[in-house]
Amino acid sequence: MVMPQPILETSRLRKIFGGLMAVVDLNFKVMPGQIKAIIGPNGAGKTTLFNIITGILPPTGGTIRFKGREISGEKPHRIAQKGISRTFQTVELFGNMTVLENVMVGRHVRTKKGLIQSGLRLPGVKREERLVLEMAQEKLEVVGLMRRANESASGIPLGEQKLLEIARALATDPQLLLLDEPAAGLNETEKLRIGEIIRKIRGSGITVLLVEHHMDLVMNISDEIVVLNYGEKVAEGTPEEVKGDEKVIDAYLGVEIRYA
Amino acid sequence: MGKENRRAVFILMICLGIFPFFIRSDYYLSIMIFIGINAIIVMGLSLLMGYAGQISLGHAAFFGIGAYCSGVLTVKLGFSIFTAFFCGIFLSTIMAMAIAIPTLKLKGHYLAVATLGFGEIIYVIFNELLEITGGPSGLSGIPSIHFFGYSFKGGWRYFYLVWTVAILLLIFSLNIIHSRIGRALRAVHGSEVAAQAMGVNVSQFKIQVFVLSAIYASVAGTLYAHFVTFISPSTFSLFVSILLLMMVVIGGGGSIWGALLGAGILTVLPESLRAFRDFDILVYGIILMTILLFMPEGIFKGLTLSLIWMRKKW
Ligand SMILES: Nc1ncnc2c1ncn2[C@@H]1O[C@H](COP(=O)(O)OP(=O)(O)OP(=O)(O)O)[C@@H](O)[C@H]1O
Ligand SMILES: [Mg+2]
Fold first, then answer.
1. Which chain B residues contact residue A92 at CB under 8 A?
2. Which of A17, B45, B200, B214 could form a disulfide with B62 if both were Cys (CB 3.0 to 4.6 A apart)?
């Protein structure tokens, strides 16, 4: 049997801020079609890891491979083009645009009409624009935000802003989606809904890498979990394996009694 | 570009189309021509500032490059008006790229500093290259425009020429704003990091818009040179760059219509303040400050908001 190729693989990945080791020689893999979670206490380096994968921060050392090809050091827009998209822990919406327009920007990477073509409305521009609109509406349906389409993105409640970030990320047609604490600040019903949406996304063939503090959600939907502490991987395995791991309980679960 | 914009462009075209039938005074026609020329530059600046969030303190220089290319090449080298016009655009494009590529890759307001320096250098060149530009005393005898034997001499003809160009560029700008390019630019303004994550090549678009705005200014320069037929460096000084910037701000940075309005108001204002004699600058300053105090987002937004408010009230 041939082992399937991991969609994402880091090797000896490291990030140092001044004297602070935010990510320390991290090796881990994500297999296609998985929902993989990264957990760890505040400051463990989870968001930093996302920023390195998406090209926002350069790594201090090590490599990242996406579908077998090295992507470390590439510009963020190139990485988006290759098929990695993300949401942000602190919402990063385009507050000066409507909900629908936010999702339409997500389509930017899959469209190509340039400045001159757009300015002159050359043939094809109108059609591309219509396709962008349809696709954006479709993604808003996925997260259930269609009725907010024409409202200002900065005016909708936080829970919906988090969903909007997911819709915008989906509009880029990612193969790998990174979600940074999608359930933070949500109430119980919204949390359940986000769980369903994440499953639905995976069902449509997108691999999900999830950072989340809500252990019930994580244990419920993840296939595998990586536990980080001070930038180091302290455990990795299925939810059951991780729950029983001594080191994990010491580092994290012992203090985080949030999960039942 | 949306129904509302299309309707507004249509109304504007009709108003401009009938203007010369009612106003025959050469003085008013020439003010309208200057408004059109300024509007062309300010539309480009509005794309750059209001949408891409970049500040240029050197657009008078691109205006000047367009004007001097047209002037020098037609007067001294006998180029056709058309060829000279494209030489201006070409030169402006090259210069704009030379400024934008190194500076716009950096974050922060390096562009403002670079364009400030560029504007000064160009200003000095206009003054010092006596043999070519005529130096401080200027360059005269620039021919007026004619196409296929049809001359654009005479106020109303030039009025139509300038405003045809301005309307075409207005439509071009509105198309850009309502396309993926316009959305990308606004996204950069909203959140640069999210825009990048959505695949927007931030520096590429900033560079493109800067070059585009330089071309607008160069086109305006050609139209200016062939209208006044005499140019001198003082028309292209830092003061003019700042005045152009003020037009964007007064009109409202985030809107092309605001740019038109700003160009209109700040072109007419100095003319209408002549009655105040020595105090004109003072009154001018007070008016600008009042506008910015009460309509910090510009007159266009201010007027729209008050219209909406009035409609609700009545
Ligand atoms: N740009 C930066 N410059 C300097 N230090 C940083 C930077 N970004 C993160 N850090 C530091 O790196 C460490 C890891 O931060 P990171 O945000 O990755 O943690 P996290 O696991 O996402 O935490 P949380 O659960 O609170 O979101 C922290 O100590 C943080 O202060
Ligand atoms: Mg974080």
1. 191, 193-194, 197
2. B214
Q: What is the C-alpha to C-alpha distance for residues A260 and A219, in angstroms, rounded to an integer?
A: 10
Both tokens of B98, joined, read 């030379």
Instruction: Look at ligand 1, atom 7, and give the residue with the nearest C-alpha.
Output: A17
Q: Where are the domains of chain A?
A: 1-83+174-260, 93-173
Kindly determine whether residue A129 and residue B197, on different chains, have CB atoms separated by under 8 Å: no
CA–centroid distance, A226 to ligand 2, in Å, is 15
Most B CBs within 10 A among A53, A85, A94, hence the mutation to make, goes to A94
E strands, chain B, are 139-140, 146-147, 150-151, 230-231
B143-191, pLDDT tens digit by residue?
Answer: 887 776 677 777 888 899 999 999 999 999 999 999 999 999 999 888 9
Q: Is A113 on the interface with B (CB under 8 A)?
A: yes
Contacts of B212 in chain A (CB under 8 A): 115
Q: In the beta sheet, which residues pair with residue B72?
A: none
What is the DSSP code (8-state) at residue A98?
B
Looking at residue B69, what is its pLDDT? 93
Ligand 1 proximity of A47 Cβ (cutoff 6 Å): yes
pLDDT of residue A1: 57
Q: Does B186 touch chain A (CB under 8 A)?
A: yes
Whether A58 has a pLDDT exceeding 70, the answer reads yes
Strand order in the sheet with A224-229: A84-86, A176-180, A207-211, A35-39, A224-229, A232-237
Distances (CA, A) of A112 to A36, B65, B180, B199, B211: 32, 32, 9, 11, 19
Half-sphere exposure of A225 (CA within 13 A, CB side): 26
Contacts of B173 in chain A (CB under 8 A): 119
pLDDT digits (tens, 9 = 90+) for A17-56: 988 999 999 999 999 999 999 999 888 999 999 999 999 9
pLDDT of residue A198: 95
| Residue A44 Cβ < 6 Å to ligand 1 | yes
Task: Give residues with Cβ within 8 angstroms of B153, minimum separation 6.
Answer: B144, B146
Specify the pTM.
0.87
Q: What is the pLDDT of residues A186-214, one digit of tens each?
A: 888 888 999 999 999 999 999 999 999 98
Query: What's chain A's average pLDDT?
Result: 90
pLDDT digits (tens, 9 = 90+) for A230-240: 888 988 989 88
Alpha carbon distance A6, A175 (integer Å): 12
Going by alpha carbons, the residue nearest to atom 28 of ligand 1 is A43
- CB atoms B196 and A120 under 8 Å: no
Q: What are the pLDDT digits (tens) for B33-46?
A: 999 999 999 999 99
Residue A208 CB less than 6 A away from ligand 1: no
ipTM exceeds 0.85, yes or no: yes
Q: Is the CB of A20 under 6 A from ligand 1?
A: yes
State residue A153's pLDDT score. 92
Query: Which amino acid would we find at residue B103?
Result: T
CATH code of A1-83+174-260, in short, is 3.40.50.300
- In Å, how far from its chain's centre is CA B183? 22
- Tell me whether B167 touches chain A (CB under 8 Å): no
